[in-house]
Amino acid sequence: MKLKVLRLVAIVATVCSILLGLYTLPRLVVNSDILALFPAAQQSPDIDLAGNQLKARIERKVVFLLSSPTWEATRNAAPEFVQQLRQCSCFAAVNATPDSNTWMAIQQQYAGFAPALLTPVQREFLEQGGANDLVQRALRDLLTNPGVAVGDRLQRDPLGTAGEFLGQINPSPDGFSLDESGFIRVTRDNQDYLLVYAELADSPYSLALQQQAGAAIKAAKLAFSQVSGGGILHSGALFYAQAGTQQAQSEISTVGLGSMLGIIALLLVVFRSWGLLVLAFVPIVAGLALGLALCHWLFGQIHAVTLVFGASLVGVGQDYALHFFSLRQSSGPHWQPERGLRELLPALSLGVLISAAAYFSFSLAGFPGLTQVAVFSSVGLLAAYGVVVGVYPAILRRPSRNVSPAFLLTITGAYLDWFAARRRTCGPLVLGLSGVLVCAGLAQLGVNDDLRRMQTLDPDLVAMDRQLRQIIGQHTALQYFVVRADDDEALLQKLESLAIPLQVLQQQGLISQYQSLTRWLPSAASQNASRTIWRDTLINSGRMADFLNQLGVRPDVAAKLLEYYDAPPEQPLTLQQLWPHLQQLPDAPVWYSVDDRSYGVILLQGLTDPEALRSLADPDDGVFWVDKVAQINQLLRDYRIGASGLLIFAYLLTVLVLIWRYGWRGSLAIVAPPALATILTLSVMGWANQNLSIFNLMALVLLLGVGMDAALFMREGHAKPRQTLVAVGLCGISTVLSFGLLALSDTTAIHSFGLTLWLGITFCCLLAPLAMPRPPGIPMPTLKPAAPIQLQEVDTNVK
């Protein structure tokens, strides 16, 4: 009765898992960002907020450069290109002209603060006696370019200093200009380009947005090329995300399809049954469905790497079905599902627990992406185990009509005899030479903790991105400063103090430019100092009065203007006044507050020597140097070292767990195949000039779990060594097919994982006879039932 209840529960759970997976599939959000695999916070959470804001801003930005044989053709075709993009809801904004409304709002906010808005160069110029030159230059400008706005300028910016202040905020690179229609024109090497900025409405890693944006960009490119006959350069995280998604889909197809075809061939060759072929994929479907659903509900999205590993789950989850089918086939007419299940259950249960534990150990690395892989794969394996244990005995009650192919039994028997002979005749010389070769390979093994070497970007996209950045001359470094202060005024003063060494480094060519909040807003102390210099050099000296007199301003109006210039506002211009307008700009400075503290970010362009910039950081004074790539590289190194300890601990724990059933010698014999396979794999990697990374070590942790299956079944099935080795070999081939195909991935992390497991599982299957309690090579026993079979126990009415 208990078995019937368990089988009923298993069937219901299988159906529910498949239905839940079908319900979840259309709702999946796939993330292909390689950085999403790694921990988000490496410093204090308040400092990491800067990185989150920068990431959100950068990853949603898309840049286009339109070109054609003539500027007129480009300009005429640009509106249609922009309109095609704007029709798609995937874009929040598409602009080919500057946002004049925001700039006008900022200029209006600056109105009346001209004496307080002096750049450091202007202040130094006035202090060194340049006031007269400034007045004469402004006079020439106003007299040679008269207009109705002269009166407005005399109130807002009489000497043009505020205009120069605005010009230094974000200076236009050489070759940039605005044509008569307001389009941004970029000239490089006698070729004109029209610059178009776009902002995505959602994350570029959203599959729905990628499809919508891809269709809109394709239509816009087609419309532009038909009108102008030109070409388009583009850059943005969107295109790398699309390439990553396509690569993941291709690899999923390759791994999943390759595994399925290989497994289909194995099943048909060995078991010669289309019914078993269908049944073999039920555990896989249930495991994949439950894994997808659980990841969706736990994480809200699923990483592309998780999907690729999920495709490889086809080969691992298949092992349980293959062992069940093999035992049924080898039992011949004496097959009884309950007795067969009891025979399989110890090795099957220990194997799935160790494999699931190995997968779950991925979460100990602290990587979000690997935690997803751990949840997806371990839950998938448990679901596959439940189907085999609960559903198969209820369905496969009749004995198999086929017997194990003779050629497989011959091959395994020959291998067992050869293996036994080698164990008896292998002398110290052979062992010594083998040990030298293995140690030499281990000595050549290098390490790889560089994130940039763990991903392979589309070379066409990289080349286009490089070409576009050379044209527009903008390349913001991944490194930046985060400055923390108790309030806004203290923050602005700290940023101003950092501007001095940054200007020196800029003059030395170590950076080409930097962006800081103080370029937009000086501190209150600087504003007051600028007003004092303005008053002393221009008002009190009488130069401003002469300036107004030479312009022919009426004495009463001039008196009011002089009083206006001399009278400071009640309060200096503050960040709270300016920020609502600044945050509308696409390249606004980064500012935020946490717990009444104020934070600002200094972005760097054209960085050539990070170490020279790093020396300016002073965490005790609230100045933090952030290098995300270096942080992740250090994390990879730390976790690689930690994973080495985890691997050793896992082997020790496995030995202790197995002692209760097999004793010391038995547990060591079972652990020997995966342990020796690990050493041999590392040695081969060393000879092949492969580098060791965290992903190789996580693969070796998984090898302990997956490889343990082979050793456990050889230990438990020692009475039928040839048939057991056939099953182990079939499982090994299916697993190698899955993980071996992962080695074909263009993503270095996945490639390393797959290659390591490919080698490790192959070695583990070859060394699996070490786990047997006695030397292999015994004659193949005659198939006999374990006990007399009662006729009434065989249910002949079940198909």
Tell me roughly what share of residues is in helical segments. 55-70%
Helix tally? 29
Broad shape = elongated
How many β-strand stretches?
Answer: 15
Mean of all residue-level pLDDT scores: 80
Unreliable stretches (pLDDT < 50, length at least 5) are 776-799
Largest sheet: 6 strands, antiparallel
User: Which radius of gyration do the C-alpha atoms yield?
Assistant: 36 Å
Q: Note the gap between the termini.
A: 21 Å
The share of residues in extended strands comes to 5-15%
Structure class: alpha+beta
Task: Please provide a written account of the structure.
The chain is elongated, with a radius of gyration of 36 Å. The protein is built from 29 helices and 15 strands. 63% of the residues lie in helices and 9% in strands. The model is unreliable at 776-799 (pLDDT under 50). A hairpin with a 5-residue loop joins strand 4 and strand 5. It is α+β, with helices and mostly antiparallel strands. The strands form four sheets. Strands 2, 3, 4, 5, 6 and 7 form a six-stranded antiparallel sheet that branches. Strands 10, 11, 12, 13 and 14 form a five-stranded antiparallel sheet that branches. It has a two-stranded parallel sheet with strand order 1-8.
Main attributes of the structure:
alpha+beta, 29 helices, six-stranded antiparallel beta sheet, five-stranded antiparallel beta sheet, 9% strand
Write a brief structural summary.
Helix content is 63%, strand content 9%. With 799 residues, it is α+β, with helices and mostly antiparallel strands.
Furnish the topology, listing elements before pairings:
Blueprint: H1 2-24, E1 30-31, H2 45-59, E2 61-67, H3 71-86, E3 91-95, H4 100-110, H5 120-127, H6 131-144, H7 150-156, H8 161-169, E4 176-178, E5 184-188, E6 191-200, H9 207-228, E7 231-236, H10 237-270, H11 274-280, H12 282-299, E8 302-303, H13 304-331, H14 337-360, H15 368-390, H16 392-395, H17 406-425, H18 428-443, E9 446-447, H19 459-472, E10 476-485, H20 488-507, E11 513-515, H21 524-539, H22 543-550, H23 555-566, H24 575-582, E12 591-594, E13 597-605, H25 610-614, E14 623-627, H26 628-687, E15 691-692, H27 694-716, H28 721-742, H29 748-767
Parallel strand pairs: 1-8, 9-15
Antiparallel strand pairs: 2-6, 2-7, 3-6, 4-5, 5-6, 10-13, 10-14, 11-13, 12-13
Helix pairs in contact: 1-12, 1-15, 3-9, 4-24, 6-22, 10-13, 10-28, 12-13, 12-15, 13-14, 13-15, 13-28, 14-15, 14-27, 17-28, 18-26, 22-23, 26-27, 26-29, 27-28, 27-29, 28-29
